[in-house]
Amino acid sequence: MVDQKQLIKTAKEIVSREDVKYIVGYKQGTYGFVTSPAFAYTPEDVESFIYNPLCKKNLAVYPILEEKLPLKRGEEEDKRKIGLVVKGCDSRALVQIIQEKGLVREDLVIIGIPCKGVIDLKKIEKRFPNQTEVVDVEENDNSEYIIKIGDTVHTIPKEELLSEVCKSCEFPNPPLYDFLMGEEVEVREKEVYSGLRGLDETPIEERWAYWEKHFQNCIRCYACREACPLCYCKTCMADMLDPQWIRRSVNLSENTAWNIMRAFHLAGRCISCGECESVCPANIPLMELNKKLEKDVKEMFKYTAGLDTEEKTLFGTFNPDDPNEFIM
Ligand code: SF4
Ligand code: SF4
Ligand code: SF4
Fold first, then answer.
1. Which of 22, 61, 78, 170 is least surrounded, with the fewest CB atoms within 10 Å of its CB?
2. 162 close to ligand 3 (CB < 6 Angstrom)
3. How many CA atoms lie within 13 A of 227 on its CB side?
4. What is the DSSP string of 270-310?
5. Angle, helix 286-301 to helix 252-265, in steps of 10 degrees
6. In a 3-state reduction of DSSP, which class is residue 73?
7. Residues lining ligand 1, CB < 6 A?
């Protein structure tokens, strides 16, 4: 359990500093099980900060989304730092972006949360449908979630609601932080790639049919892109008109092009936070694609994304001994 008082005290100290612009954490959402990002510019704003197993969103999207408006004549750029509350996977996203020179380490003040896993919103909403009243959820020491709805308390085994990505999380402790909220947590004993359903062994025709079945449901809302901290190109290929790599029409061919292109663009960069799959309204198992590529990158290039800010990126490195059987 993260000590909320300690979190609020630390966040207040950070936002009070002259070299900090604001800090981003979590606050209670406006309905049901939803939590929201909270932007605090003053110590008073920090009072709304919470941390509980519903705090799933990856807040690492925010520093790279910050709009850099043109400066008026004589105006100076605000170079103050941005504070951020991060779990293990969120911290890895920051590391990866810093490796790619998308962010500068010194521009961030990071509160790290040793993470015991978060709840899958789709699972809990299925269990308690049409929940409009705001609900608070806690985890107890017996690996159970305590859910209070009105006067009723529900105790549910953690495994039933835990996000699938958290069940196979290799890095629950943030690799990069300035302040750590509590002791590091143990990595769960698990099979990291068990969710791949033996994709490697499945005949190619079956694999193709499986993905066609899912891709035809894609509505090209691009929610997966917007929620992803590593999808931060200034101009996404999907939005380009000249050349137009992907047409705007929503059909199997273009949907497949979009999803395959995005998956490959994330190869060696995805940090397995699962946000893309969580926000997908069409329930496409995007993490199967991401995990397959992560596994291949690990096996072929001995590379894992987002662990060390000093390490070169996968695509920023050339090793003459790299496997090249796939190059024609
Ligand atoms: S993937 Fe790991 S670090 Fe991220 S929320 Fe799940 S357990 Fe926490
Ligand atoms: S979130 Fe899902 S439906 Fe929307 S573009 Fe991405 S894969 Fe398609
Ligand atoms: S592709 Fe999905 S799992 Fe990977 S970093 Fe982006 S949002 Fe997270």
1. 78
2. no
3. 18
4. -----HHHHH-TT---HHHHHHHHHHHHHHHH---SSS-TT
5. 40
6. coil
7. 87-89, 115, 117-118, 163, 165-166, 169, 172, 273
CB 272 within 8 A of CB 294: yes
Rg value, the chain, Cα? 21
Calculate what percentage of the chain has a pLDDT beyond 90.
77
Using CA atoms, how far apart are residues 122 and 154, in angstroms rounded to an integer? 17
pLDDT digits (tens, 9 = 90+) for 77-127: 888 999 999 999 999 999 999 999 999 999 999 999 999 999 999 999 999
Residue whose structure tokens are 């936002």 = 15
pLDDT at 328: 62
User: What percentage of the chain reaches a pLDDT higher than 70?
Assistant: 97
Q: What are the pLDDT digits (tens) for 6-52?
A: 999 999 999 999 999 999 999 999 999 999 999 999 999 999 999 99
Query: Ligand 3 centre and the CA of 137: distance in Å?
Result: 25
In this structure, which residue's CA is closest to atom 8 in ligand 3? 273
Determine the distance separating the centroid of ligand 2 and the alpha carbon of 281, expressed in angstroms.
7
Could you tell me the distance, in angstroms and rounded to a whole number, from the CA of residue 224 to the centre of ligand 3? 8
* Residue 177: strand, helix, or coil: coil
pTM above 0.85, yes or no: yes
163 φ/ψ angles, rounded to the nearest 5 degrees = -60, 145
β-pair type (20-28, 81-86): parallel
Ligand 1: centre distance to CA 35 (Å) = 16
- Average per-residue pLDDT for the chain: 93
